[in-house]
Each structure stands twice: as structure tokens, then as C-alpha cells.
Write a structure and sequence with these properties.
The complex is a heterodimer of chains A (249) and B (296). Chain A has 249 residues and is an all-alpha fold. Chain A is built from ten helices and no strands. The radius of gyration of chain A is 22 Å and the shape is flat. Chain B is α/β, with parallel strands linked by helices. Chain B has helices at 2-15, 26-34, 60-76, 93-98, 159-170, 182-190, 201-210, 238-254, 256-265, 282-289; strands spanning 36-41, 44-45, 49-51, 57-58, 82-87, 104-110, 119-121, 126-135, 150-154, 175-179, 196-200, 217-234, 268-269, 274-275. In chain B, the strands form three sheets. In chain B, strands 1, 5, 6, 7, 8, 9, 10, 11 and 12 form a nine-stranded mixed β-sheet that branches. A three-stranded antiparallel β-sheet of chain B has the order 2-3-4. Residues 7-18 of chain B have low confidence and may be disordered. The chains are: A mainly alpha (249), B alpha/beta (296). The A-B interface holds A 1-5, 16-18, 87, 90-91, 99, 102-103, 108-109, 186-189, 191, 195, 198-199, 201-210, 213 and B 26-27, 30, 90-92, 94-95, 98-100, 110, 112, 114-115, 117-119, 150, 152, 155-158, 161, 164-165, 177-180, 184, 187-188, 191-193, 234-237.
């Protein structure tokens, strides 16, 4: 009985008829994965912080809208959201705009993926920011206001600096997740790492799928672990001894 | 009494197929020893191998494989042979074949030189050609009409390679976009995100037949590539391959395969009673006339 013919060097072989090599495809995929995840992270951090803060403000309307945002985007599977943004949204736009989005918008898969991933992750970050703020004793906010700071200044100089330090561990997970979640963008045709893996293991170099899948997994592992180390470094650098979440001094 | 039993056994051995005269090896031995044949099938490769309403695998390749199973039963004198069905994907079929999880794969696998490094194929049972699906009102007839337009192919297939090859020759420039699966790629054309979908003609025919208004879509242009499909087997397993090939060549020579073809490609098939309406291509007729297992 024949056995599986292992060939780890398969990624260094040329792609038939293209003049390219398989490892170049994987690297290009890795590049898109990193770009997409980092761009989406910027959106997620910005929107997530705003929405998270909005959930804790006294104004009922603002906090209600923020809550609605979180529940909407956190309760729909990411893959469905990607699909909705890409295939369904253009159909509801005015015909001219819809056609522009579908045919002339630059990098359609990339821009849609960044937006969808950013908006989805923002809902999760918002919850963590809210948690961080609510962890602090109510006296902090009252003290800030009593000292004559405006509500905005209280958030900016008293609450958020500590809240962000408190939520660094869950934010680390979220930062690692965004790289892995970016793989979902292959459903709208983004040529990221998992896409390239499927491309190679499908019909191009079909004889050695296990090696290509393993190498891809290791690449994800390296990316996520680097993100983890980066956040751990950030956590150490920004630590304030004596505050909640400041750790041992 | 005992003597006559032995005589009977000897007589039946002598009249059995010659393959049994030699010692069983490979997959046939594995099947004989375990009494189980593991058959790998696809879940949505219409009309080759897919699940019907009762989650039972059916299709053109499945019909052909069932004839192989019948012959295995006869050859091994195992009327109670148990057939175990295992769903496979284009990513899992080769590892599952080489590690022994499946003994025969009945799907829509291209017989390629690359794959022959890991597995073997029975004689080709189908020949597909890669062509373009477009909207009828899009006015696209040739590759040249695609210049500057987005063209979709499905992830994991090599169809984009044929566009790339052909665009070089014609110095046309297309935007390559990708769908996760054939249904997604079709949706891209349907919603206007892509001007054409490049894929195996039989898959395109299936998508059109399933569409809300099949009239809106057409398969156009020349064959960008021609590929044979084969039933996949383990490598270096001559006894089993001989049995499979004998079964298939028998069906081809007797013309029975035409009836099987018509059942799946020229008449209504489950689950939605669509008709692919895809007559045999000249390439397929040729392959059935001179059975071979040459890869591309």
C-alpha cells in the first residue's frame, strides 16, 4: 500500500506557467493578512473606544445608541457580516453608487474586508473599554468632576488612562484575534494567507496539501505570537505601580 | 460429504476470475480481510457526486463506482460487502486516499501528472473544458471582450491560470477576482461584480440550470483548457486498478455508459429536477472510444 509522499520543499517549487514560486504566493498572502488586520485594528480601536466610552456616559440616548451598535455587530457572525457588506449593501445603494462600488472602487475586497473586520472588532473592543471604565471606582469620576474637570477631561485624564491599562490583557487577545479573523475575508475574495493556502492546495500543487496547510498554520502562529509579545511589552512599558492593573511594583 | 465440499470449492475457484488465482494484494486484500470498502464521495459536485435529499451520495461518478463495487463483490465472493461512504473535499481527498481512509474516490477529480505522484487514476470517465459564463445581455463573446473587466474564478481552482496564459497571448488585461466557492463566483456575475466566470463547463451548466432565470446566462467563448476526470485510486495497486479499469472499459465498449451519461447530463436530476442539457463533447466521445488514463 502506498504511503503519503512527504515533500516539505514543495513551497520552493515554481508555479507552473507563471514564473512565480509557491512561497511567493504565501508571502503575498501573509502581506495582505497583516495589512488587512492592522488597518482594521486602527478602525476597531478608534470606533471601539468611542462606542465603549459612549456606553458609560450619563446621556441615555448616546449610551442607548452605543449599546445598539455593540449588540448588532457582536451578535451577527463575522462571515455573515462580510457577506452582507460585500454582496448585499451595494444592491441597496443608488444604482450609480452601487455600480461604482461593484466595478470601479479600488481594491474592493480589501476595503470591504478592512471595514467589516474593523466594525466587528470595534463592538468587542467597546465592551472591553466599557468594562475597564466600570472597573474603576465611581469615586474617581466624581472626584474628577468635583475638581472642575469637564466630563470629557475626566475621561481623558482620569478614567481612560487607567481603564486602558486594566484591559490590556483582553485587548491582547483581541489583537491576536484580528489577525486570525482576517482569514474570513477569503469569502469575499481577499487574497490573504488562507486564500493562498486554499489556492495552492486546491488545483495548483494538489499532491502535497498537508505540508502547505502546516506551513500556513505556523505562519499564523508566528504572527499571533508576535502580536502577543508586542502587547506584553506594551503592558510592561505602560505599567503604573500602585494603580489597579498596575501589577507588582 | 466433506470430499464433495472440497471439490465444490476447488471447482468454484477454478471458474472464478483469473485475478483470484494469484494472491490478493493491496486494496483488494484489504477489502477481503475487513469486508469493508471505503468509498470517498463529494457533497456538492453536481452531477458527478453529491448528496440527495436523503443525504445519500448520488451522481454520474457514483453510478460508475457502484458498478465497480458490484464487480468487487463478485470477484471476492463477498455478497455481504459493506460499503462505507466518506465525504471528501478537494483538499482532503489525496491525504485520505494515501492514509487508507478511503479506497476509491468517486467525484470530479482531474487526472493530472502532479497528482499521479501521490495517487493513481482509473481510465478517464469524463472530459471537461474550461469556458466562460456571462450574462446574455453583456455582449461578451470572446476573450478580447473581457479587456479591462473583472473576471471571477473560484479559490483553489486553476482556471485563472488559463486566463493569465491567454491574456498574455492577446495582450488583454483583466482584473482577477475570486469567489470562495462556485455559488459565490456565480453570485459575482449575477450581481455585476464580475463580467465573466471562468470554470469547467459542466459546473457552469449546473449553475445556470439552478439559476432563477437560466435564460439570462450563457456559456461562451473557446475552450481555454481541456481536462480529463478520473476515479481516484491508490498508487502501486495493480490488482484493484485492473478491476476498476476492466469495469469501466466494459461499460464504454458495451455503450452502457451512454445511458448513464444521459441519465445525469441530459435529463432531470435531483434534488431540484434540473436538466443540465449538456451533450457529450467531441473530446469525451473520443475518450470513451479509446479508454485511457493519461493525465494532463
Amino acid at each position: 500500500m502506498s504511503a503519503y509522499q512527504w515533500h516539505w520543499g514543495v513551497i520552493f517549487e515554481p508555479v507552473p506557467d507563471t514564473g512565480e514560486f509557491y512561497y511567493q504566493w504565501l508571502l503575498s498572502g501573509l502581506g495582505w493578512t497583516l495589512t488587512t488586520a492592522l488597518a482594521a485594528w486602527c478602525i476597531a480601536l478608534l470606533v471601539g473606544t468611542l462606542v465603549g466610552v459612549a456606553r458609560t456616559v450619563p446621556n441615555r440616548l448616546v449610551s442607548g445608541l452605543a449599546t445598539a451598535y455593540v449588540e448588532l455587530f457582536r451578535n451577527i457572525p463575522l462571515i455573515v457580516q462580510m457577506f452582507l457588506w460585500f454582496f448585499v449593501l451595494p444592491e441597496f445603494l443608488p444604482a450609480a453608487v452601487g455600480n461604482w462600488v461593484k466595478q470601479d472602487m479600488p481594491l474592493p475586497a480589501f476595503s470591504t474586508a478592512v471595514m467589516a473586520l474593523g466594525i466587528y472588532t470595534a463592538a468587542r473592543i467597546a465592551e472591553q473599554v466599557r468594562t475597564g471604565i466600570l472597573t474603576l471606582s465611581r469615586g474617581q469620576k466624581n472626584a474628577g468632576l468635583a475638581m472642575g474637570l469637564t466630563l470629557w477631561q475626566t475621561y481623558r485624564y482620569v478614567l481612560l488612562p487607567v481603564a486602558f491599562r486594566v484591559i490590556t490583557p483582553p485587548l491582547t487577545s483581541e489583537f491576536m484575534n484580528i489577525f486570525k479573523n482576517s482569514a474570513v475575508a477569503l469569502v469575499i475574495g481577499l487574497t490573504e494567507l488562507t486564500f493562498q493556502m486554499r489556492q495552492i492546495t486546491g488545483e495548483y500543487a494538489p499532491a502535497n496539501p498537508i505540508e502547505v496547510m502546516t506551513i500556513t498554520s505556523v505562519l499564523y502562529l508566528l504572527v499571533a505570537f508576535s502580536a502577543n509579545r508586542l502587547m506584553a511589552w506594551l503592558e510592561r512599558k505602560t505599567r503604573i505601580p500602585g494603580t489597579i492593573g498596575g501589577g507588582q511594583s | 460429504m466433506r470430499v464433495s465440499l472440497i471439490a465444490l470449492a476447488v471447482a468454484s475457484t477454478l471458474t472464478a476470475a483469473p485475478a483470484l488465482a494469484e494472491e490478493l494484494t493491496g486494496t483488494l486484500k484489504k477489502i477481503k480481510d475487513s469486508g469493508v470498502l471505503n468509498l470517498g464521495h463529494r457533497e456538492s459536485s453536481i452531477p458527478f457526486s453529491y448528496l440527495d435529499d436523503n443525504q445519500k451520495p448520488i451522481g454520474y461518478s457514483m453510478d460508475l463506482c457502484n458498478r465497480v463495487v458490484e464487480n468487487v463483490k463478485k470477484e471476492l465472493k463477498l455478497p455481504t460487502l459493506l460499503v462505507k461512504y466518506t465525504p471528501v473535499t478537494s483538499q482532503t481527498r489525496i491525504p485520505l486516499m494515501t492514509n487508507g481512509t478511503i479506497d476509491i474516490e468517486c467525484g470530479s477529480t482531474t487526472n493530472s501528472i502532479e497528482r499521479q505522484k501521490q495517487v493513481a487514476f482509473g481510465v478517464s470517465t469524463y472530459v471537461t473544458s474550461v469556458r466562460m459564463l456571462t450574462k446574455t445581455n453583456a455582449g461578451i463573446k470572446t476573450l478580447n471582450d473581457l479587456n479591462g473587466k473583472p473576471v471571477v474564478t473560484t479559490t483553489g481552482t486553476t482556471s485563472d491560470r488559463y486566463i493569465k496564459q491567454n491574456e498574455k497571448g492577446l495582450s488583454i488585461d483583466v482584473k482577477n477576482v475570486y469567489g470562495k466557492d462556485h455559488a459565490d463566483s456565480f453570485l459575482m456575475v449575477d450581481t455585476g461584480r464580475a463580467a465573466a466566470f471562468v470554470m469547467d463547463d459542466v459546473l457552469l451548466a449546473g449553475l445556470i440550470a439552478n439559476a432563477k432565470t437560466p435564460k439570462d446566462f450563457a456559456i461562451v467563448g473557446p475552450a481555454l483548457s481541456v481536462e480529463p476526470y478520473g476515479i481516484m485510486l491508490r498508487k502501486d495497486d495493480p490488482q484493484f486498478k485492473t478491476l476498476v479499469d476492466k469495469t469501466l472499459v466494459g461499460l464504454m465498449k458495451s455503450g452502457e455508459i451512454n445511458a448513464v451519461y444521459n441519465r445525469w447530463f441530459m435529463s432531470s436530476i435531483p434534488p431540484r429536477n434540473i436538466n443540465l442539457n449538456l451533450p457529450m463533447s467531441p473530446q469525451l466521445k473520443e475518450a470513451l472510444k479509446t479508454p485511457n488514463d493519461k493525465g494532463v
